[in-house]
Amino acid sequence: MTVSIIDVARAAGVSASTVSRALRSRPGVSDQVREQVTAVAAELGYTASRSASSLASGRTFTIGVVVPYVGRWFFGTVLDAAEQVFSKAGYDVLLYNLGSPEARKRFFTKLPLRKRVDAVLSLLIPEEDEVTALRSLGVPLASIVGGPLPGFTVVGIDDRGGAESAVRHLVNLGHRRIGMISGSSGPLHWTTPVDRRQAYLDVLADSGIAHDPALEVDGDYTVKGGERAMTRLLAASRPPTAVFAQSDEMAMGALRALRRHRLRAPDDVSVIGFDDHELADVLGLTTIAQPVAGQGAEAAELLLQQLSEPDAEPPGHVRMPIHLVLRETTSPPNPRRSR
To answer: Please, what's the b/e burial string for 315-339 (b: 16 or more CB within 10 A of its CB; e: otherwise)?
Structure first.
């Protein structure tokens, strides 16, 4: 005979809903009861049915995740961390990769995740009509990019403050010709490159340093883009003595360009990145560390919290900490190259 959740509940002396919460590690169940239910379920050979659970709860036990570039390190790291949290709680992930304007338009026109997900994690910044479309789903919404967004729980960092710390570090070392490798051609409607660029301009202005447009090059938020950008900076009539790359991957490309030109960081050019990529320590890269995986895990936890406590007020904007990590790629300017 097939053992049902009712059988487990009767044997454990609890309700069926308590059995469901205990076996899915949901809140509202004490450790003692959870251990008791787990032991009884194992003894009876009970295996939870996903379809039965869905019918009983009205849930799909699926979380929709929309990303602009699933193959990029940042988005992949966030997705992996979030998926681990969802999986541990018994939820599957339904992934939508919207890397082109056409795919994005098609997705928000058809909205294929309607009635298929219990919540949505967005790794892109939706436009006003896209926000309206997502809200129409009637499920908890979360994001890890951009600023506060009505109807969304947003987990992020202070992009402007982090970039200010990076550029100010170079200024404090004595650099006056500071270049920037930006990401202006990044994902659609992404505000991160705008915020970090404004911080760069603000610190230059506060330090009495004139902005030289020739020292600002787009690196496409990729290693290859960073290499191309640094090559262009080195070809300037007055090359920079230091460079702020808006991401570690672009900073890695910049370091590779220096090597190809038989130059070294920081002896010839100081380089600072942003992210604290898993390879940053290996390369000795000075950077601004942000909890990339931590943001994905936090956003996932907050979505699960909203699902377990639907009547509670959802959190608005959660800001994660960032800090400067000093390594070997920055130093005071070389007097020989500062003239």
So the answer is: eeeeeeebebeebebbeebeeeeee
